[in-house]
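Please complete every field before forwarding. Incomplete forms are returned to the sender.

SECTION A: IDENTIFIERS
Entry label: holo-336
Bound molecule: molybdenum atom
Molecule representation: SMILES string

SECTION B: INPUTS
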Amino acid sequence: MNETSHPNTNHVSDLSLPCEMITSKRAFFSRRKFIKGLAVAGSIAPISALSQSEKENEPDSLSSDSSLFPAKRSEEHNPGWIQTKKNVAQTYNNFYEFTTRKTMVRELAKNFPTSPWPVEIGGLVENPMTVDAQELMEMFPLEERVYRFRCVEAWSMIVPWTGYSLSRLLEKVQPKPEAKFVRFETFNLPKLAPGIEKYNYYPWPYVEGLRLDEAMNPLSLLTFGIYGEPLPTQNGAPVRMIVPWKYGYKSIKSIVKIELVKEQPKTFWEALQPDEYPFESNVDPSKPHPRWSQAQEKLILDIEEGFFGDSLNYRTVKTLPYNGYSDQVAALYEQK
Ligand SMILES: Nc1nc2c(c(=O)[nH]1)N[C@H]1C(S)=C(S)[C@@H](COP(=O)(O)O)O[C@H]1N2
Ligand SMILES: [Mo]
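SECTION C: PREDICTED COMPLEX
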């Protein structure tokens, strides 16, 4: 790492370096069980230098019904990385309330109603409130930030999110001194989200949590949009968290409740498998998941429809400590 360069440019080189050594690959995941790996030889370039068609990631004009979109891009959070194609981020989803089958989420979430959407912000705060997600969105200026997003399953994406730092909201509701953690909760509507009944052995509703100092870190984004438009349901409409230095499951979708609490909350995944999905879950390449390595990840760039089913176009890159956000968050975890 070049110590003299600006912290933000460090991430670009971190990300592009491993690409010198990798080849682009495609993985088939298909409605039909046709598995075939295609190696595309010769396409080895730094990620930051890869060309991308701007058009494909432009917002759909029809879906942008809010005058707040697209929001201003944050200079600070827009490194020159290549971005995952919008079409992938909105097709390849983890949202177990609908289904565990990633490419089916979009269809099953299509008619899920996300407005009105009351969000309760309470617990150990001076100013509890219940506001509609629209009002919550309008409470502070929105900005667009391009973040790396790393799922515990060892795939990743680079996605432009729209929102504001959760700290803004927390400052407004004023946590009491006893508050030590933030607990987030997703809707629990089995009639509207078929996964809830289908996987009734899961501890619904989906719950996540952060330490208060993690929640106050400016990177923790209360998120209302993606690719310059309001979140589609499969990405967690109307409001979700994005916590880019932690594994993806910490980035809880479709939030109905934000509660300041004294004790560390029991999270959905921790309740299921505490050794595999502990509360902290910072991205750490040196700490393997009990069932697989976390040293590398498949950075998914594109999805293509083909005769034999859809295929993912990805690059294998090294996973970075704190997902590349050490400069911003490592201090949170230094021994005191
Ligand atoms: N409520 C809820 N939030 C959730 C999940 C979920 O199943 N339910 N899945 C998590 C996981 S494992 C990941 S990787 C991300 C996926 O977000 P995306 O589909 O927008 O990429 O959402 C996270 N948030
Ligand atoms: Mo995930």
